[in-house]
Specification:
By secondary structure, this protein is mainly alpha-helical. The chain has one domain: Hypothetical protein af1432. The chain is about 60% helix and about 0% strand. The protein has 10 helices and no strands. The chain has helices spanning about 20-30, 35-55, 60-75, 85-95, 100-105, 110-115, 120-140, 150-160, 170-180, 185-195. The model has no long low-confidence stretch (mean pLDDT about 95). The structure holds fe (ii) ion (FE2). Fe (ii) ion binds near residues 41, 45, 74, 75 and 130.
Length: about 200
Amino acid sequence: MSLLLNRSVFGDPANAGNVLTREAANQLFHDWVKNERLKLHMKQVAHLMKCWAAEKEGLDEAGQWRWELAGLLHDADWDQWPDQHCKKIIEELENRNIDPEIIRAIASHGPNHFGVEPETNMDKMLFAFDELSGLTHAYSLMRPEGYSGMELKGIKKRFKEKAFAAAVNRDEIMDAMQRAGVELETIMQFIIEKQGEVN
Ligand SMILES: [Fe+2]
């Protein structure tokens, strides 16, 4: 099964600045996604995107919401339509006249699956957070204290253990970091600090 999108232009530039309201985004999120584990993953990535936009990109509230929205909806079609993953949410957001920047970020969150290269910072950070967030969460689940007191050296050790969260593709993570121009340790530390705030 190929998830290749076979296209490189997403959305209409005339829609720049158009976003979903938080209510509309939550409605879509809950209508489309029923799997609680996937919901948590999407909320975690959304939170990381929002925090990164605020702290590292220095964006205002509107900018932060654009990043958060990309994170919140990036896997929206995975639960019910895995064979149309990415394609379906892209079409939905295009039909709703959403900002192409957000649609493009979603389209490029798995360049090795969808065939769309991350270009903007938003694209790159969504790709970078996606897999590493999952690995960090798996680590939190095996710690009695969860995220509390989690240390960088612990997550680095798990990263090196190929058998731990084996489905998480380490090569893809390294690829994502390189594209984002962010050190692996920097992003790990960021996730450790922020991800536990989501529940
Ligand atoms: Fe994801």
